[in-house]
Amino acid sequence: MENPSTPAAPSGPAIMGLLLHAVANLPREPSTDVLLTQAFLQADAEALRSQEFSSGLAACLARLRYPGDEETRAQDAAQWVVLFADPVGGPLLSDPGLTPEQRLANLAFFLLRPELPLDLLAAYGGNLTSAAAHEAQLALQALLPEQVAPIARFPVALVARLPELSAMTQPVDAQALSVLVPHVLRPDQGARFLQSLADEVFGAVLEDSPVSASQRAFAEMAAEGLRALASRLEADTDPRQVAQILVLGGLQHQAFFQNLAPFTEDALAQREQSPGAVSAVDGVARQLSATGVGLIGMALGGPIGMASAGRIFRSVTRAVDGLMAGGRLPLGALAGEVLGIPGLGVAPRALGEVVAALTQLYAVQLSGLGDEAATLLEDLMPLLLRGEVEGLGAAWAALLDNPERVEALRSADAEARAEVLRVLFVGGGMGAFSWDAVTPELMAHSQTLFGHALPAETPPADAAVLLASSAARALAVLANDELLDTLRAGQLSPAEALVEARELGASLFEGGTEPADPALTAAMLGALAPPVSIDDTVEADESP
Question: What local confidence, expressed as pLDDT, does residue 5 receive?
Answer without folding.
Answer: 54
